[in-house]
Each structure stands twice: as structure tokens, then as C-alpha cells.
Specification:
Belongs to the nitroreductase family. This protein is of the alpha+beta class. It has nine helices and four strands, in the order H-H-E-H-H-E-H-H-H-H-E-H-E.
């Protein structure tokens, strides 16, 4: 085993969901910023990066966020809270940025097959997937088309508005995991929380109506008794299948 693999294994094994943080120990808020830089490097669908991260440091605001999280210990004792969210309404500017980057990369070679495929993807396919579909009509038509085309060849099946939301939250969760591992590498602990009043929390942090919260992560130095029980995982043989 490579030394780097052993180090990563040790880090993963040391990570726990810590429910109580120590208010007396020092805490470096810059560790959060460094870990968020790692979050930005997470893999994400089509490199659209439709996410945003809200860092809550101020004591009064942090306690209000904790109330939105039903005053869980992991929220009300956290030294900083980070809210991971997705921003589907920003799809157009992200697609334009990606297309512009491709033009720069293929400057003078815009007719190259790879460039043409990429332009088609960001200028035609992405708009077809992301354009406003509140009533679900476009998604239903895409689903029908996918089913029909899939009768003769492999086809992407997850094309509805709901599928798109799932896709974005998967990307945001990957970013959150990078962040959580980064914080552990910094010597701090975290707790990812899905229990919160999303409507109140969005209002409190001034999020756009279309923004959706993926999770809230509490951060800080581990307090005594912060881990509530021994780790339990089901046997690997029951979930790892080799084909």
C-alpha cells in the first residue's frame, strides 16, 4: 500500500459525525476556507458547478441557524456552520462560461470535432435540460423521447426535472465530502445535518427562491462525549458486489 493511501485510510477512519463541539478550544476559521477550496475541486455534473456554500460565523446568526436546525447539538455548539446548496437557476451563465473556456482552449481550431461536440453540448443540450420546466411538461416529453430512443440503443433515462434536482444534489454532496475530509485533515471535526427548516434557513441567509439546500455542516474541535456511540456499518459483503 502506498504511504498516501495509508494516510488517507487513517483520515477516513478517524472521521466521525461529531454531535458536540468544544467552545473552549481554539478554532481556525481559515481552515474552513481552505477546505472549501478543496470542495470546489469535487467532481460535478457537466462541470456546471451549480453550487454555493454559505459560511456562518457570527454568534447571533449562528444561533439562529441552529434554531432552524431544531437546536441539534451539532448545530448549536458548532464554531462555524457551512450550508451547502444548489443553484439550478444559474445554469445559463455556467454553460456560457464553459463554452467560453472551450473557445479559448480551441482558439483557431473551433471546427475540431471535440470542440464542435462540446459547443453542441453546452449551447444546445444543456439548455434543453435546464430550461424552466415548473409544470414538468418538458421533462415528461424528454422522458418519453428517452424511452422511445432507448428501445434501440443505450440512452440516458434520468432527464426529468426531478432527475435534474437529484443530479445537482449529488454534485453538491460530493463537494461536501471533499470539505468534510479537508476539515478532518486540518484536525477538526464535522457533522453533516439534513434536519432543518429549509424555508426559514433560506430566508435567514438571503438565498434565492430557486436555491435548494443540500445539507448543513457543523464544524469545530471535538468535545468530550461528542461522539454518541461506536461506529456501526453493515458487512461489506452485503453491499459490495463484484461482477
Amino acid at each position: 500500500m502506498a504511504p498516501s493511501a495509508a494516510a488517507f485510510q487513517a483520515l477516513v477512519h478517524s472521521r466521525r459525525s461529531v454531535r458536540k463541539f468544544d467552545a473552549q478550544l481554539p478554532f481556525d476559521h481559515q481552515a474552513v476556507q481552505r477546505s472549501l477550496q478543496l470542495a470546489l475541486l469535487a467532481p460535478n455534473s457537466s462541470n456546471m458547478q451549480l453550487w454555493e456554500f454559505h459560511c456562518v460565523i457570527q454568534d447571533d446568526l449562528r444561533q439562529q441557524v441552529a434554531q432552524c436546525c431544531f437546536n441539534q447539538n451539532a448545530a448549536k455548539t458548532a464554531r462555524e456552520l457551512v450550508v451547502f446548496a444548489v443553484t439550478p437557476h444559474k445554469w445559463r451563465e455556467r454553460a456560457e462560461l464553459n463554452a467560453a473556456q472551450i473557445r479559448q482552449n480551441f482558439s483557431g481550431r473551433e471546427t475540431h470535432p471535440s470542440a464542435k461536440r462540446a459547443f453542441k453540448y453546452y449551447e444546445r443540450m444543456i439548455p434543453a435540460l435546464y430550461q424552466n420546466d415548473r409544470m414538468g411538461v418538458r421533462g415528461a416529453l424528454r422522458k418519453l423521447l428517452s424511452t422511445l430512443l432507448g428501445l434501440k440503443k443505450p440512452m440516458m433515462r434520468e432527464v426529468s426535472r426531478t432527475d435534474l434536482r437529484v443530479c445537482l444534489h449529488k454534485s453538491s454532496s460530493l463537494a461536501a465530502m471533499n470539505f468534510i475530509n479537508g476539515m478532518r485533515a486540518e484536525g477538526y471535526d464535522t457533522c453533516a445535518m439534513e434536519g432543518y427548516d429549509s424555508k426559514r434557513l433560506k430566508q435567514l441567509l438571503g438565498m434565492d427562491r430557486e436555491t435548494e439546500i443540500t445539507m448543513v455542516v457543523g464544524c469545530g474541535p471535538r468535545a468530550e462525549g461528542g461522539i454518541y456511540s461506536e461506529r456501526h456499518r453493515i458487512d461489506a459483503e452485503t453491499v459490495i458486489h463484484t461482477h
